Amino acid sequence: MSAFLGPIHYWLYNKVQVEDQMTKAIVEKAMEKGLLTAATLDTADQKYGTILNQSLEEMIDTDNIHGWLQDRVSVAEGRLAFFVTEIIEKNSDAKEEILETAKCFGHDLKRPEFHSVKEVYQFIMDTLLDGMPCDHVNSIELEEADRLVYKRNHCVHEAYWQAVNGDVTKYYEIRQAMLEGMLEGSGFAIRQNGNQSEIVKLG
User: Fold this and answer.
1) Whole-angstrom Cα distance, residue 83 to residue 43?
2) CA 120 to each of CA 81, 113, 116, 166: distance values in angstroms, whole numbers, following the listed order
């Protein structure tokens, strides 16, 4: 990455904030249900740190832009894995509520009007956190007028879930629920098949 702030840095930081906001929505719902305590929140803050709702310019270390952003990615990913694992350990039935929260969160995101599968793909890439840009996690395999298939080349999330003895498949279930919310009523849908995702135009 460059030594000055550019569009790619804002793009990545926005994705970090989106994931953190989804985690906060999940935590809020779990607190209402008594599945998390204030002590657990304090533990997460001490262990992972927090994502502050401030502009990038106010916080970033301009002498270490890449390192600072990588740290923010790790904070967001670590907190999500930690909280979801804690909640499900308390109550395995809570997974469905987590998925519903993620779907509602996705639906409430500011969404453009989509005209093509490529626009949907770009919106997904602009929203979901898949490591750093240099990780090259996703690549398009097939692009047609009403169908686009892209592949996950490798998983950048699993290490965070392993660190809390969690199951990374929960992450991908949450991600799919969020995507379904994002595309609800849009005339497009996304389907998962292992490490491949297919975006299709409905109708």
Assistant:
1) 10
2) 26, 9, 7, 30
User: Helix or strand or coil: residue 56?
Assistant: helix
Residue-level pLDDT, tens digit, the chain, 203 residues: 445 789 999 999 999 999 999 999 999 999 999 999 999 999 999 999 999 888 898 888 888 999 999 999 999 999 999 999 999 999 989 999 999 999 999 999 988 899 999 999 999 999 999 999 999 999 999 999 999 999 999 999 999 999 999 999 999 999 999 999 999 999 999 999 999 999 999 98
Question: How far is the CA of 136 from the CAs of 131, 140, 177, in angstroms?
Answer: 8, 11, 23
In DSSP notation, 67-135 reads HHHHHHHHHHHHHHHHHHHHHHHH-TTHHHHHHHHHHHHHHHS--PPP-SHHHHHHHHHHHS--S-GGG
Residue where the block lists tokens 């039935």:
93
**Selection from 19, 18, 122, 14 nearest residue 69 by Cα:** 14
